[in-house]
Amino acid sequence: MLFSDRDDAGRQLARRLLELSLHDPVVLGLPRGGVADGFQTARKLSAPLDVVLVRKIGAPFHEELAIGAIADSGDEDIITDAGLVADMSISADYIAQARSTALREIERRRHAYLGDRQPVDVAGRTAILVDDGVATGATMLAAVRAVRRRNPRRIMLAVPVAARPALSQLRREVDETVCLCAPANFMAVGQFYVRFPQLQDEEVVSLLDQARGHASSEEPG
């Protein structure tokens, strides 16, 4: 399966989600790419869009390979892939330094994306976590556990494509999963998109502003 871009993937996710019974949904995109997918999903569902502030921990000299992740959840616990950490002989000092670096980036993104605005309240609602794809699953796992602490009624995972091992693990952490494609031959998320550019902070902010403006225009009065 190929998606032409993140807009296309988000619309396809929305079509699948519209077939389900969703109680007071809120879409939570994982920056940066998940916000683009989530924008179209939220628009089709007439649901608010927000972000989950989470940051991948990359391997030494191979930052795209996630050995773990950390989310802005209050206790700031880091999730690591114990197998990868052992196989690559990654030291505790490296992980501690990477954790500090990730938390600084999360704080920077909080100011960039949210400013003085408070996150959308998910308590008692259906929280739909969206990303443009799942490879190792570490970042999404950190996001799911952080959102769980905010007391949603249900947590749904919604992704266009995912690696099967990661998807299997994540299914045990959420209440429901929507995944459009889980191929046996998975190398990278980008291989399933025709256009897969890196999003910039300005684009994320623009999408969040557009989503808030769209939601305001639909409010009574």
For the record, what CATH class of the domain at 6-53 and 119-217 applies? Alpha Beta
Task: Say how many strands there are.
Answer: 8
The name of the CATH topology of the domain at 6-53 and 119-217 is: Rossmann fold
Strand content: 15-25%
Dominant shape: globular
- Radius of gyration over alpha carbons? 17 Å
Strand order of the largest sheet: 2-1-6-7-8
Question: What is the overall pLDDT average?
Answer: 92
Helix content: 40-55%
Distance between the ends: 43 Å
Structural class: alpha/beta
Task: Kindly list the characteristics that best describe this protein.
221 residues; 8 strands; five-stranded parallel sheet; 41% helix; alpha/beta
Task: Explain this structure.
The protein has 221 residues and is an alpha/beta fold. It has a domain of 147 residues: 3-Layer(aba) Sandwich (Rossmann fold). The chain has seven helices and eight strands, in the order H-E-H-E-E-E-E-H-H-E-H-E-H-E-H. A five-stranded parallel sheet has the order 2-1-6-7-8, with helices on both faces. Strands 3-4-5 form a three-stranded antiparallel sheet. Helix 1 crosses helix 2, helix 2 runs parallel beside helix 7 and helix 4 packs across helix 7. The chain is globular.
How would you concisely characterize the structure shown here?
With 221 residues, this protein is α/β, with parallel strands linked by helices.
